[in-house]
Design brief:
5-stranded antiparallel beta sheet, 9 strands
Amino acid sequence: MAWRVATPRQRARGFTLIEMLVVLVIAGILVAVASLALTRNPRTDLAEEAQRLALAFETASDDAQLRAAPLAWLPVAGGYRFIARERDGSWRPLDDDPLLKARNWTTEVSKVGIRYPGLQDSQGHDRVVFGVEAIDVPVVITLYGPSAEVSVVGSGNGRYAVQ
């Protein structure tokens, strides 16, 4: 049996183990850098939270008209809740309604400001009230985050926009 000597052309058919390890290490470094660069922007998170809140406000406004009883939105520690006015004048939480149940903020909200621009006493309100009429008082709700602030503006016609 004769031994054949491999020519250089026959030896270069694949990658060595070291070459494969180098490629895997480089790929791992690139994935790590990409994942660090893709962290979410807190301003985007706050804007998304405000958009969810605007949709919840529209739902509450419509619901108050359907119930023929005022509803209110109340910011609480770590989140917010909706409450309904009873016939005796008391307020009860709407925890039985899946759309208007109490929720926690999905991002960091350090402070909430409620302002009614058309009223004489525009500052310092602790809740947003949704009346039984189609036309209501304009309101501005400002969410303050660590590096940004976003406002939800209600024009008084039951529709809310994020600014």
